[in-house]
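Chain A, query sequence.
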Amino acid sequence: MPIFLAASVFLIAGCQTAMSNQATASVSTRDPETYPLRFKQHNFEAHCYNTLDCHVLYNGANTTRTAVSRATPAPVGADYKQNWGGAPFIGIRNFPGPVEIQWKAKSGADLTAEVDLSEIFKNELVLHSTPLDEIPEKAFKGPAGEPLIIVEVNDRTVSVYMQMLIPTKSEQIPGNPNSHFRDDIVLAWSKTY
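Chain A, predicted structure.
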């Protein structure tokens, strides 16, 4: 529990935060090597919206090549994040270095940012909104797997999200036996420049 509280204090100190329901169920009844859920590797993707030019560099790659030297449109619809999840960069050991971002906002302002994922996720906790008592008892053993970390550049705001497929005991879509999971996109950090 002290680790979760330390992570919460750090996240609360950030610009905006996401809270996980990992502490809602008694962790003591679960395997202490597994809960709270942690990760040692991650997948990564980045998206640019409302920019005139956008470079998101991470782990030696420009992850937004299609946004370089061209305008990117506004996101379409309130649920546009549901189209994320392509994870073009997979199996990255935590954490090879900061995310370096250079972009031109809609106003034409040239902006730069360096986002330290090792600080945002310093306890390597998986952010999710699935109650622990809804996760099947033996769904995970040891590290939980590889969550997707998503960086979004939207005009002057940079946000970091996490998405992780979490098995559930019950159907998430009533009547659909293939819906025993959640993969919520959880905000971890955000800053407007």
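The helical segments are 2-13, 117-120. DSSP finds two helices and eleven strands in the chain.
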